[in-house]
Each structure stands twice: as C-alpha cells, then as structure tokens.
Amino acid sequence: MNHSPVGFKRELRKLKQGRLTVMSEFKVRLHPSNEAFMVGRDELILDAAIRQGVQVPYSCRNGTCRTCLFEVKEGTVQPVDVEVCMISDQELESNRRLLCMSLCRSDIVMEKVQPRRRRNPAESVQ
Ligand code: FES
C-alpha cells in the first residue's frame, strides 16, 4: 500500500470499493461477546467486519456519525484521517477509535462504547 497522502487516499478508496485484495493478518476480538474476525494490514476494521458478516454498529462509514466508536482494550489500532473524523484528541488518547477509520497494527480486543454526539471534534470529553 502506498503511504503518501495522495496514494493513501487512492488506496483507501479502492478498499472501500472492494477493489483491493486483502490478506488477513490480525485478529479482532469483541468484548464481552468474544466474537472474533480477521483484518488485513491495510483493511479498515469496519470493512473487515462487514466482509465477514460480523454485526457491528455503523452508519456513515466516513468518520462523522460516531456510531462505530469502540474502545481498544488490548493491542494497537492506527486511526486514519483523524482531521476529518468526529473524534477528539482526548478520545484518541483514551484508546477510543472509529472502526470505519482505523487500521489494525496487532491483534486487538475492542469494546463498544456509547458515543456522545458532538459538533466539534476538538471539544473535550467529559
Ligand atoms: S460508521 Fe459513522 S463514524 Fe464510523
């Protein structure tokens, strides 16, 4: 995958259109259900869940509705395009991630959290 800003957006578009082959590398386990699925290194976590028929909450698939907000309990998740996502720096520091805008960097355990509706991602988390 090309990691320049232009190349990354092009590859991200291909991933969202299903035009990129995915090699599964990491295991995602949902807490507390223990349901698990595999995610490719360059595959968005939400896309992997949908591809494998795993029921996770989502709506917009572009980082704005916050429906897919999860907390990472174990492992490393890399957020992408955080400048356009509705997620605050405080949430990122608290290991919260939007599944539709995140890539796995290890096996992970995640738990669903209830999103607070906010207009500005720079607002603080209470
Ligand atoms: S599906 Fe809307 S923010 Fe992820």
User: What is the CATH topology descriptor?
Assistant: Ubiquitin-like (UB roll)
Distance between the first and last residues' Cα: 37 Å
Largest sheet: 5 strands, mixed
**Radius of gyration over C-alpha positions, nearest whole angstrom:** 14 Å
| Percentage beta strand | 25-35%
**Order of the strands making up the biggest sheet:** 2-1-7-3-5
Number of structural units classed as domains: 1
Instruction: Tell me the name of the CATH class.
Output: Alpha Beta
CATH architecture: Roll
What does this protein look like?
The chain is an alpha+beta fold and 126 residues long. The chain has a single domain, classed as Beta-grasp domain (Ubiquitin-like (UB roll), Roll), CATH 3.10.20.30. It has 3 helices and 7 strands; from the N terminus they run H-E-E-H-E-E-H-E-E-E. The strands form 2 sheets. The protein has a 5-stranded mixed beta sheet with strand order 2-1-7-3-5. The chain has a two-stranded antiparallel ribbon with strand order 4-6. The chain is globular. Its cofactor is [2Fe-2S] cluster.
